[in-house]
Amino acid sequence: MPGAIQVPVTNSLLASLPRKDYRRLLTGFEPVTLTFGEIIYEPGKPIRHVYFPNDSLVSLLTLADGHLALEVGMVGHEGMVGTPVPLGVNVSAVRALVQGSGTAMRMTSVRFRKEFQNCPPLQRALYRYIHVLMAQVTQTAACNRFHVVEARLARWLLMTRDRVRANQFRLTQEFLAHMLGVRRVGVTKAASALQQRKLIRYSRGEIHILDDKGLEAAACRCYQVVKDVHDRA
Ligand SMILES: [Zn+2]
């Protein structure tokens, strides 16, 4: 029901589609609000819906030993959550956790697969996006192994900024420690160092980015490497 859609659709992937395809697809979408901390997929479990975030942000986490979670990808307005579905797979390999509250457009996997088969522009957009997401995931693997926490934190904050399109967002140190796979004290030290350099301000679970250029200089090269892949695609 197109009339039921009342949230502004600001997902860039959907917006990049030809008008005709975009309008047809909208009839199959349902706007939903995603809330911080909500888990939308678990590894090994069926994917019932795919999501195109508007202003929400979703983390893709991989689990080790069943309970240790590490972020391997991040999806915002530039992408889609549920990329196995267009590849013909109905089961998630990762946990998908809402990292920033906001809205998303959701469609059942069954309907989405049909739309995907009949819409070449959507196929092209998603192949490009899946390529970019793969680049992000592989770069993150190297980043987690080789780069220091302070540079990784700076990278993570910039990736979040790009995806929520805001310089201020909510974040707890505990959450960040999980995302970066380090102990909380490590995050505290890295955040204090960035704060002392006047690149960010951190108080009561709110992060403000004060100096974009400075933070980009403090981040490891991984930020730019993935951004370049995205811009080229
Ligand atoms: Zn890195």
Describe this structure in words.
By secondary structure, this protein is α+β, with helices and mostly antiparallel strands. It is 44% helix and 23% strand. It has nine helices and ten strands. A four-stranded antiparallel β-sheet has the order 2-6-4-5. A three-stranded antiparallel β-sheet has the order 1-7-3. A three-stranded antiparallel β-sheet has the order 8-10-9. Strand 9 (200-203) and strand 10 (206-209) form a beta hairpin. Helix 4 (120-146) packs antiparallel against helix 9, helix 5 (149-164) packs across helix 7 and helix 6 (173-180) packs across helix 7 (184-196). The radius of gyration is 18 Å and the shape is globular. The mean pLDDT is 92. Bound molecules: zinc ion (ZN). Zinc ion is lined by residues 143, 147, 152, 155, 220, 222. Zinc ion binds at residues 143, 147, 152, 155, 220, 222.
Quick structural overview:
The chain has 233 residues and is an alpha+beta fold. It is built from 9 helices and 10 strands.
Radius of gyration: 18 Å
Gross morphology is globular
Helix percent band: 40-55%
Topology as a string of helices (H) and strands (E): HHEEEEEEEHHHEHHEEHH
**Number of helices, where a helix is a run of at least 4 consecutive DSSP H or I residues:** 9
Q: Give the strand line-up of the largest sheet.
A: 2-6-4-5
Mean model confidence by pLDDT: 92
Low-confidence stretches: none
Beginning-to-end CA distance, first to last residue: 32 Å
Structural class: alpha+beta
Helix and strand arrangement:
Blueprint: H1 12-15, H2 19-26, E1 30-34, E2 39-41, E3 49-53, E4 57-64, E5 68-75, E6 95-100, E7 102-108, H3 109-117, H4 120-146, H5 149-164, E8 168-170, H6 173-180, H7 184-196, E9 200-203, E10 206-209, H8 212-218, H9 222-232
Antiparallel strand pairs: 1-7, 2-6, 3-7, 4-5, 4-6, 8-10, 9-10
Helix pairs in contact: 4-9, 5-7, 5-8, 6-7
Bound molecules: zinc ion.
Residues 143, 147, 152, 155, 220, 222 line the site of zinc ion.
